[in-house]
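TICKET: design request
STATUS: open
ATTACHED STRUCTURE:
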């Protein structure tokens, strides 16, 4: 699907390797949604912000 935030990037299913959770990331604006999130403009958060809050860089790979 196309990212609702930027209307440019494709939202790709990925696995957060460090925590083994499924997430969805926009390749264009780096917004991340977790598996249980509804993918809308009012949900999702910047991938960089998540990495900082997590205290360590999360390795993300494509599912
Ligand atoms: Zn986007």
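STATUS: resolved
RESOLUTION: sequence designed for all positions
ATTACHED SEQUENCE:
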């Amino acid at each position: 699907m196309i990212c609702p935030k930027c209307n440019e990037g494709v939202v790709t299913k990925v696995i957060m390797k460090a925590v083994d959770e499924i997430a969805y990331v926009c390749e264009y604006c780096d917004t991340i949604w977790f598996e249980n999130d509804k993918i809308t403009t009012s949900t999702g958060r910047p991938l960089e912000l998540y990495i900082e809050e997590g205290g360590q860089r999360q390795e993300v790979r494509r599912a």
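CLOSING REMARK: The longest strand covers residues 11-16. The CA atoms of residues 17 and 40 lie 24 Å apart.
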